[in-house]
């Protein structure tokens, strides 16, 4: 029963920004509220899933206590490795998106005034996208090395 409640809460967390954006369209409020609600519902769902024990653990039946403790430490290290990879990709993607948004708009403004600025503008937009690629490379190094 708890798993279904968490699943329902997670589905609500996914669709809450769409609901708030729809309300924003009629009321004229900013989208910061939708982003804040999405972040809050994500962390609430994460805490609820952790408290309910949905993740679970896998263990062998004939393992000694010392081997089980070592396995728990290895499981924690493995889990933190995945969390680090997710943070590297996610945060670098957000940072790259913000950088591309500002540099691309400035590049379009510069190109509209001077056609010769296209090459320089394209380089700056490409450098901004490189931030996301560096995050992906760091995540791959974390996962496979």
Automatic annotation (TrEMBL):
InterPro entries named among the record's database cross-references: ATP_synth_F0_csu, ATP_synth_F0_csu_sf, ATPase_proteolipid_c-like_dom, F/V-ATP_Csub_sf
Location relative to the cell: Membrane
GO biological processes: proton motive force-driven ATP synthesis
Transmembrane segments: 6-23, 35-54, 85-109, 121-144
GO MF annotation terms: proton transmembrane transporter activity
Chief site of localization: membrane
Membrane topology: Multi-pass membrane protein
V-ATPase proteolipid subunit C-like domain segment(s): 83-142
Keyword entries, A-Z: Hydrogen ion transport, Ion transport, Membrane, Transmembrane, Transmembrane helix, Transport
Entry's family note: Belongs to the ATPase C chain family.
Protein name in the entry: ATP synthase F(0) sector subunit c
Organism in which the protein naturally occurs: Lawsonibacter hominis
